[in-house]
Amino acid sequence: MQVVERRTPLGAVLSAPLASMLLALAGAAAGLLPTTSAAADAIWTYLMPLAAACYLLESDLSQLLSSASTTLVAFLVGAVGTLLGTAVAFWLVGPRLGPDGWKVAAALCASYIGGSVNFAAVSQALALAPGPVLAGAMTADNCVMAIYILTIMSIPAEGRRDSSSGSNGGGSTGQRPAAVVTAESMALSIAAAALACTLGTQLAAAVGMPSLGLALMSVLASGLAVLGARLAAGFRSGQVAASSSSSGGSSSAGQASQAAPPASPFTGAEALGGSLMMLFFATIGAAAGSLQALRGCGWLVLFILLQLSIHLAVCLAGGRLLRLPMQSVLIASNANVGGPATAAAMASSKGWPHMVQPAMLTGCLGYAIATALGCAMGQWMRGWYAF
Questions:
Q1: 215-265 residue pLDDT tens
Q2: What does the alpha-carbon distance between residue 380 and residue 249 come to, in Å, rounded to a whole number?
Q3: What's the number of CA atoms in the CB half-sphere (13 Å) around residue 213?
């Protein structure tokens, strides 16, 4: 898909993530791909965090504070939009959802503040029994969420866009040549990303908050990126100094500088993460491919469409009113609806690696607050209609 994106006009319009999702959706709808599988679970559980960590190993942390603060504000605006959208949608469609409609609405409200993890948590907290209602809600959630992610990814957002490592040539005389991807840098990238994922998961489990695994992983991966860059820079400076003292020639020093390792030992990590992210987007598309499962869920689909339409309207209006960057607004909305995984994937695939960590941190904040907000919303809506 990345090759198609770079070399064909249609791919440039769709982008690799959108093309991956659409092809997987079509394959699942045609019965060629399963909508759920152990392989898809493995991609969500292992490959997506590994891919996100790879992106963070080459991310520019100089923009972290500014991007994180604006993304946090946009995320809170999006949460308000979800609460408002849930209230309006339930007021209009609630009687059509049945006796357990308020529970479904509460679970969907939590899902679109923090992610699918909160959908399951609220369903369990409100005793929404497994059955056709819950299955229909989950199917409608997956399908409409995929459409929503496709929609916000197609919205243009001007701003900083980082090219992948090594894509810029050394055209100007004052620049160092582009870093070269080597087997060593790829091996170091995979090892560092795996280390960050493992430690993040274990630390989150140790403190009794497994949902913070991605947030801790992002902090650890960013720390490894800074540490690796400093070690590489120190090694390069040492080589230059040694060469200068031994030869006494400036040309030798310049040659040593050219031969020294790049500023980061993780060159190529971003490209590796991009390839893994295509698998992740394909699983989202495949999960939405069981369109026949939506039979009888028309009112649920309408409810979610109303809910997300109001959410997006509030996000865009709030972002414009508060003068927030469109990148932050879109990433925050993705973090609300899809969680940190899809938000980080969108940031990386759009060429915004500086937005990956804010996406994860705000998404994990959603994990922390969405269940309580969803349950509170459910209790408030419980008495609206009598059945």
A1: 688 778 878 887 887 787 777 666 656 666 665 544 544 444 444 445 568
A2: 77
A3: 20
